[in-house]
Design a protein that fits this description.
The chain has about 350 residues and is α/β, with parallel strands linked by helices. The protein is about 40% helix and about 15% strand. The structure holds pyridoxal-5'-phosphate. Pyridoxal-5'-phosphate binds next to α4.
């Protein structure tokens, strides 16, 4: 991720007057704070296990939970195939390293840290066709909609890196059947609890094709030995006490409401921008006819009291029209209208400003 963007976001986050529409953060209100605090305290007090080293593949009970959720969604996967990772992000890095040198197709815009993970791993990132394809199932980040159906993805013969970060957060509750059940030999299945429960635990998972499992586990061990024992133990305890499906329903409803507010605000204040109404997830992807440096536009927006994620961060290829990702997930619902108003003001000034071609 561009260091200029990171510096601007850090400066904006430190200012109370800036309404933040950047970052894929879940709502603070939905973090299971009290239950997690109890779970953490209990596992830390209950014996040495949560405070000790664990196995590189992860906590057995957690792997069983992950496998049982996949099975319930129509993709039977044996727990021994699941590797618990430090978030979906580490799973992306491990998949990228295993595909070093291969062409990974990512589409016109995608999750920026997947791009950086693949590039850092030595894969060749391309927009259109490759030996492998990265797909965000159910709800794409940044688009907020399902970009490719299961049938489209399965129709090709590419290796598929399937990121399910938002798959269970479709507002219509139509959670797609995990592709790993259909093509286990060429699907790298990636999941996380970051968007549904708590990103701070840093727990995600990877189900690599069986032929790659041993090598991936070695790589994982070389990188960090194992995913944090304390996080995994607390998560297992928490999961035994919450109704995860009920929690997902509450989250879908909560985000659908915030989304509607931002969509209304964008229609009201920015009638000229194009976007698809989100089907789930955390954000809206706006396309404009503006040109220029979108990081400079972000700087101008922050000066006007609003932040967003510049579209260039999501793109592998250069595109001259400015796009923006606006996240409604972590912004107070009551402030979304004002945030869109500030963004509209920023764009009006941007258009008037003389710029070098
Ligand atoms: C599509 C997508 N994949 C993966 C991640 C990383 O998730 P985690 O916190 O599990 O590493 C994110 C976080 O923004 C994301 O949007």
């Amino acid at each position: 991720v561009d260091a200029r963007i990171l510096a601007l976001h850090k400066a904006a986050a430190a200012r109370e007057d800036v309404l933040g529409l950047a970052g894929g953060l879940p709502a603070d209100e939905l973090l299971p704070q009290a239950k997690l605090a109890t779970a953490l305290a209990e596992v830390a007090a209950s014996g040495a296990d949560a405070l000790q080293y664990g196995w590189p593949e992860g906590d057995e009970a957690l792997r069983v939970w992950i496998a049982s959720r996949l099975a319930a969604r129509g993709a039977p996967v044996e727990p021994r195939r699941v590797i618990v990772t430090a978030g979906a992000q580490q799973a992306l890095a491990l998949a990228g390293e295993s595909l070093r040198g291969a062409r990974i197709a990512v589409g016109d815009a995608t999750y920026p840290s997947a791009l950086s993970a693949f590039v850092a791993a030595g894969a060749q990132v391309v927009c259109d066709r490759g030996a492998a394809r990265y797909a965000i199932a159910g709800v794409s980040n940044p688009h907020g909609i399902e970009l490719a159906s299961r049938d489209e993805l399965l129709a090709g013969s590419e290796v598929l890196i399937v990121d399910e970060a938002y798959a269970e957060l479709r507002f219509d509750r139509r959670t797609p059947r995990p592709l790993v059940g259909d093509a286990p030999d060429r699907v790298w299945h990636i999941g996380t609890i970051s968007k549904t429960l708590c990103p701070g635990l840093r727990v995600g998972w990877l189900v690599p094709p069986a032929s790659a499992h041993a090598a991936v586990l070695e790589r994982k061990q070389a990188a960090d030995l194992q995913t944090a024992s304390l996080s995994q133990a607390a998560l297992v305890r928490l999961l035994a006490r919450v109704d995860y499906d009920a929690l997902l329903d509450r989250a879908r409803q909560f985000y659908a409401e915030r989304c509607e507010r931002l969509v209304d605000a964008v229609r009201r204040h920015l009638p000229e921008v194009r976007f698809a109404e989100p089907e789930g997830g955390f954000s809206i992807w706006l396309e404009t006819d503006e040109t220029g440096d979108d990081v400079a536009l972000l700087e101008a927006a922050i000066a006007n009291g609003v932040s967003f994620d510049p579209g260039s961060a999501f793109r592998h290829a250069l595109v001259d029209r400015i796009a923006m990702r606006l996240s409604f997930s972590n912004a107070p619902t009551a402030k979304l209208d004002e945030a869109a108003r500030r963004l509209a003001r920023t764009l009006t000034r941007w258009r008037r400003q003389p710029r070098a071609a």
